Amino acid sequence: MKRKSNDIPIKKSTALFFDLVTGLSPEVHSKKRMLSDMKGMYSDKDAYEIMLDQQDSLIYEFYELGIPKTPHHLAYGTTILYPGKVGNEYFMTKGHFHQKLATAEVYYCIKGHGMLLMENPMGNVEIQKFSPGIAVYVPPNYAHRSINTSSSGPLISFFAFRADAGHDYKTIETKGFRKLIVEQDGKPKVIDNPNWNR
Amino acid sequence: MKRKSNDIPIKKSTALFFDLVTGLSPEVHSKKRMLSDMKGMYSDKDAYEIMLDQQDSLIYEFYELGIPKTPHHLAYGTTILYPGKVGNEYFMTKGHFHQKLATAEVYYCIKGHGMLLMENPMGNVEIQKFSPGIAVYVPPNYAHRSINTSSSGPLISFFAFRADAGHDYKTIETKGFRKLIVEQDGKPKVIDNPNWNR
């Protein structure tokens, strides 16, 4: 049932099904980020190593449809972020700036609960809560990371951005975000990132 | 609860709620298209006039959030298209080209059943079916119109496009689409538009 390639014909229209309950498409391949792909991203390195020794869990998956990387096209798909924690830090996406820094992105949350953490190179931090029906607009210039603050279900969002925006993962891998979202007293709390690297 | 203006601050992030059941946002004003706004768009002019004499019904509503019209931003929101027919032609949106013709759009259907009718200036016609979970990608250069083929509920989609794309309604108002979606024997059928104006 899967297509051989995610490259969809873009001179014609396309209809793809992304299940509103699971977020998954039976027709195309998702990109999967395992715990082992998240090395160095969680604050508690010991908790990370212990977890990884036990199981290389699936943290999140999303779709890259091979839309041509031009300003006339839009990249779109779903992100499915599973629940869990590394130490007291919730499961999250890597987070990235766009390579074309000044391009926006929009998320429409269809399931689950969490947050979108954003920061721009000037150091401004923005945080919005995700719940079903919430559309979060990421303005140009902001790095963005999803965080699943639920103890049960996945956080699922539909996303769209200009297809030529590109991904700069490296800046966040190197510096981190200025803030972390951790569980304290059973509730999500925003704290300063002790390892933030200016 | 509504904001005074739909203009949202775009140097900061925004979270807006669009109800997954009704498609509506309690926080911002929708644009409403009444039957009286659709003059000349339905094939059966007599049926249109008789209906309008009885009641000026709400055909569809959608959101324009006042996002700055630059290539760095995205316009987004929901479209809610109510069920009904004018003669045997289903309720539909006006449909439009983008003023910047070569810009794409993506729709993510969250509720209802219908179709997206598309055509480009070369005369190529594309039709995709909408049902919950279907994402339809409108490639650059294609005019697009939503059609609600259900006899009961609204057709609701989340949409995104480049904020500077602009709307050219006039071409469709003048020429129409090459195809119509009508009910025949209780089912939707695609037919040639007898009034299509080259």
Structure description:
The structure is a homodimer of 198-residue chains. The first copy, chain A, has 198 residues and is mainly beta. The first copy, chain A, has one domain (31-192): Jelly Rolls (Sandwich), CATH 2.60.120. In chain A, the strands form 5 sheets. In chain A, strands 2-3-4-13-8-11 form a 6-stranded antiparallel β-sheet, with no helix packed on it. Chain A has a 3-stranded antiparallel β-sheet with strand order 10-9-12, with no helix packed on it. Chain A is built from 2 helices and 16 strands. In chain A, strand 5 and strand 6 form a beta hairpin. The mean pLDDT of chain A is 94. Chains A and B meet through strand 1, strand 4, strand 8, strand 10 and strand 11 of A and strand 1, strand 4, strand 8, strand 10 and strand 11 of B.
The first-level CATH class name of chain A: Mainly Beta
> Residue share in helices of chain A?
under 10%
Radius of gyration of chain A: 17 Å
Count every helix of chain A, treating DSSP H or I runs of 4 or more residues as helices: 2
Give the low-pLDDT segments of chain A. Answer: none
The major pleated sheet of chain A works out as: 6 strands, antiparallel
- What number is the mean pLDDT of chain A? 94
Principal-axis shape of chain A equals globular
Tell me which oligomeric state these chains represent: homodimer
Total separate domains of chain A: 1
Q: State the strand order across the main sheet of chain A.
A: 2-3-4-13-8-11
CATH superfamily of chain A: Jelly Rolls
* Binned strand content of chain A: 35-45%
Topology order of chain A in helix (H) and strand (E) letters: EEHEEEEEEEEEEEEHEE
Proper CATH architecture of chain A: Sandwich
Class inferred from helices and paired strands of chain A: mainly beta
Q: Classify the fold: give the CATH topology of chain A.
A: Jelly Rolls
Distance between the termini of chain A: 47 Å
The total beta strand count of chain A reads: 16
